[in-house]
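Dear support,

I submitted the protein below through the web form. The confirmation email said the job was done, but the results page showed an empty box. After a refresh the structure appeared. I'm attaching both so you can tell me whether what I see now is the final result or a partial one.
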Amino acid sequence: MKLAFIVHNELITPRVMQLFKAGGIDYYTRWEHVTGKGHGTEPHLGAGSFGSMNTVFMIAFEEEAPLEALIHGVTAANTEVKRPDDKIRLFQVPLERIV
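What the results page shows now:
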C-alpha cells in the first residue's frame, strides 16, 4: 500500500480533478489554502501582488494501478507547464495500515 500527497497551486485544482477522474480515483482528503515553499520555487503564502496558495490532496492506494495512472497523468501534465511554480508535485510514501 502507498500514500500519495499531491501539492499544487490552487488555481489548477480543476486540472488535478481531471487527472483523478481519468485514473478512476474518487477518494481523497483535501486541504485548501495551504501555504509553503518548494525547492527552486516562489513561496505560496497568499500574500503580495500575486499572492497564491496551494491545495494538498492525500490519497491512500491499496492497489498499484490507480497510483501508476496518477503518476503518469501528473508527469504528462507537467510537461505542458512552463514555470516550475506551476507544476503538480506528487510525494509517495509507504502506507503500513488503514484502519
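Response: this is the final, complete result; the empty box was a page-load delay. The two ends are 13 Å apart (CA to CA).
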